[in-house]
Amino acid sequence: MSFLEKYKKNMDELFNLAVIKYDVIHNIYEFIPYSHAPITKNWDDNLLNLLIHNIINYCYYQEELSDEEYFDANTNLNDLIIQSIQERLNKKERNSNPKFCSDVSHDGLTGELLLDILIRYNYENSSMLHCRPIYQQMGREKQELTNYDLLYFIEKENNIELILGQVKTGEQINCITGIKSDLNLKYNSNYFGNAMCYIAQRDMKTHTSPILHQILRNINKISRENAIKGEREKHLAITKYLNDKNIKVIIPCLLFFKNEECYLNDILIEKKVKSKTAEIIKLLQTDFTNIEIVNFELYFYIFPCYAVNAIKEKLMKIKENSYEKI
Question: CA torsion sign, 203 to 205 to 206 to 209?
Fold first, then answer.
C-alpha cells in the first residue's frame, strides 16, 4: 500500500467516525446538514483527529503525496503533520497578533480545515488543482486571498470549476450575520476579479492541467489588455470571460456554530439537526443581489457543534506546540 493509499484509508476511517451527513435540502439554494458523532462516543477526539490529519491534505498537492520517492509507505503521519504545520501553514496571523495564542476568535484554521474536508468528500471524483494554502506558501498572504476562506480549482469531466468558500464559526446568530455580509460584499466583480488576477499572475507550472494553465494565461492577457480602462472594467472583463468559458463558480458556506441542544439525546440528533437547518433556511431565503458572478451555485453547510471553542482551543494548542519545536 502506497503512502497516499494509506493516508486516504486513514482519512476515510476518521471521517466516518467523526462526521454524519444528512440528506440535501433543496430550497432557493442547497442546504446540507451535518453533525458530529454523539457526545457519548468521543465526538471531540474524533473530530479533532480528523481536522489534524487533514492538515496534510490542506498543505500538499495530491501529486506531491503520490511521489513515492519522497513519501513511502513508512512515512509517519504524525511527523508529517508537525512538518506541515511548521513549514507550510501560513504563520502571518500568529506572528502579527499578540492575542493569537489565547483568543480562539482569532483562529480561522478550524473552520477552514472542516470546510476543506467537506468539499473533498463532496467532490471525490474530481481532481483538485490549485488551492489557497499553496498560494500562501509562495510568500506573504495578500488581501486578494484572505477574502475567501477556501479556494480551489477543480477539474471535473474535462471542465474546470472554481470553488470560493466562506466559513463562519462561533455563535449561530453571528455565523448567519457574517455569512450574509460576506456574500453581499466579497462576490462582486472587484473582489472576484482581484482574486483571479492575483492567482493568474502566480500560475504554477507544477499543476497537471493544461486546461487550467490556458485559462490562467487568458486571464493574464485580459488583465493586461484592460488595465488602461480601470479596475472595474478589467474585473468585469475577467468575470465575462469565465462566464463565456462556462466556468462555474461554486460558493460553499460553512456555518459551524455552537449548539448543545442537538446532542442532548443520541436518538434525536438527526431530527434536531434537520429542525435547526429548517430554522436557518428561513433566515437565508434571500437573493444575494450583490453577487456579480453569472454562473454560480450556492451551498450552505449547516454544522451545529456541541462545543466549538473547545475544538478550536485544542487545535490551536497542537499548532502552537508544533511551532515551538522549531
Answer: positive
Q: What is the pLDDT of residues 36-72, one digit of tens each?
A: 999 988 999 999 999 999 999 888 877 788 888 888 8
Inter-CA distances, 59 with 117, 151, 258, 263, Å: 13, 13, 27, 32
3-state secondary structure of 157: coil
**What domain range includes position 129?**
3-324
Q: 3-class DSSP state for residue 155?
A: strand
How far is 211 from 155, CA to CA, in rounded Å? 9
| Number of domains composing the chain | 1
Could you list the beta-strand ranges (E) of the chain.
Answer: 19-21, 25-26, 30-36, 127-131, 150-156, 159-170, 248-258, 296-305
Q: Nearest 5°: CA angle at 294, between 169 and 165?
A: 20
State the Cα–Cα distance between residues 81 and 86, nearest whole angstrom: 9
